[in-house]
Amino acid sequence: MSESFDVIVIGAGPGGYVCAIRAAQLGLKVACVEKRDTLGGTCLNVGCIPSKALLQSSEAFEETQHKFADHGILVDGVKLDLSRMLARKGEVVGANVKGVEFLFKKNKVTWLKGEGKITAPGTVEVAGQSYSTKNIVIATGSDSMPLKGVEVDEKQIVTSTGALELEKVPGHLVVIGGGVIGLELGSVWRRLGAEVTVVEFLDRITPTMDNEVSKQFERVLTKQGFKFKLKSKVTAAAKTAEGVTLTVEPAAGGAAEELKADVVLLAIGRRAYTDGLGLDTVGVERDERGRVKTDHHFRTNVPGIYAIGDVIVGPMLAHKAEDEGVALAEQLVGQAGHVNYGVIPSIVYTWPEVASVGETEEELKARGQEYKSGKFPFMANGRARAMGDTDGFVKILADKKTDRVLGCHILGPDAGTLIAEVAIAMEFGASAEDVARTCHAHPTLNEAVKEAALAVDGRALHI
Ligand SMILES: Cc1cc2nc3c(=O)[nH]c(=O)nc-3n(C[C@H](O)[C@H](O)[C@H](O)COP(=O)(O)OP(=O)(O)OC[C@H]3O[C@@H](n4cnc5c(N)ncnc54)[C@H](O)[C@@H]3O)c2cc1C
């Protein structure tokens, strides 16, 4: 047996690496096991960061081609250098993953390189070495969900990982799944010139979102050129010399049709990743979807083994994983670490963006909660007009009796940044009146949030 630790975290994604850093800050001796060549997990290597780098670049490309002229800026001969765009994305990823390596050194977190396997409670094996530890944290994340009949080769039929690396812009990209990842990466390739068709099983895209927002979002994306095949399922994919032929059937059953694509992006969701971890050997229980079962303190059924992030229940989001990492590290030293699952913002980084926090109208109705709703369109916001970004609205939902904010749903420019003020308001138990009476700088997009809060009481000023 080699070195021993207070905590060994398995997986260096946003859940694992943040947990390791926080535990080290609190004085524990910490190691983090990662089998990738770089730290940062899915998020930094093949998720949040590279996708946002490409969204940024492709947005600049589209703006230069189609929006600048409206501002009186005429640019001739705009051309795409895709290999430079991909190289830049690689540089952004490189800087971020190196940053985590620096933070590990700064906080004296030991990186154990290789695949971690739990061989017994309190024992983790990495690269043929056994390490003992008082606590084990499983933070092994997730990977993309497979689909029967659609075999991924990461060239013609890709997951999000392959979609971040396409060597040329596909003529026709078919995205299977109308969720966040499919729509973000679909946006990237549409802006760069691909025709994009999204096949979605349900009757609407982004199905967990507030219905009104997802309907309007679909309209906006359609205006941008997206094609949607809703209530449809892909049942087979055949590779041909020209591309891929998909068999698409109505979700409810019926006649199949063929859909030809140059590239297919499979984006029907993600599943917990626990391969090779040794969970069966030590008897760690999983649920019906393969997620590690935990209680409210991230404890598994085996004493001394905990789990956080995408590998457990809850939204598969980097900031949710990070907050769980912090809360668990604090609990391990006897502090009261806590995550408020009622206030976890969720964002789609298309343009316009979509952001939400708290409950949707459908959720409030389902639990019989009486509520008031206030809405304000970006069309009536001076800053949005100056930007030329007037699509969308802010909607605030508040308790009918107490006026406490219960949810906020935004489709619009910089929605992902705007939602933070409502998340803070909700953490402090604010009423819509509190938000409405807070002085908001003019002219800002945030004024649309204030106006939506005023609208909850029927007194929006600028509409
Ligand atoms: C294309 C894409 C875009 C996304 N965009 C966003 C976004 O904008 N915002 C957002 O909040 N979320 C986004 N996500 C989701 C986000 O990436 C995840 O929620 C987040 O990474 C989960 O963090 P985690 O620490 O639980 O796991 P992960 O980030 O998946 O990290 C787990 C790590 O564990 C390692 N590992 C697994 N098993 C072992 C083992 N046995 N031994 C050693 N190492 C192991 C893996 O190699 C991996 O590096 C995106 C995801 C994708 C795919």
Detailed description of the structure:
- This protein has three domains: 4-144 and 271-339, FAD/NAD(P)-binding domain, CATH 3.50.50.60; 157-268, FAD/NAD(P)-binding domain; 343-456, 2-Layer Sandwich (Enolase-like, domain 1), CATH 3.30.390.30.
- It has 14 helices and 22 strands.
- It has helices at residues 14-25, 41-46, 48-67, 82-107, 160-163, 180-191, 211-224, 279-282, 318-332, 361-366, 382-387, 415-427, 432-437, 446-456, and strands at residues 4-10, 30-34, 110-113, 116-120, 123-126, 129-138, 142-144, 157-158, 172-176, 195-199, 227-229, 232-239, 244-250, 257-261, 263-266, 270-272, 305-307, 346-348, 353-358, 371-377, 393-399, 405-412.
- A hairpin with a 6-residue loop joins β13 and β14 (257-261).
- The longest helix is centred in the first third of the chain and has 26 residues, at 82-107.
- The model has no long low-confidence stretch (mean pLDDT 97).
- The protein binds flavin-adenine dinucleotide.
- Residues 10-16, 33-36, 41-43, 47-48, 51, 115-116, 139-142, 160, 181, 273, 276-277, 309-311, 316-319, 321, 349 line the site of flavin-adenine dinucleotide (FAD).
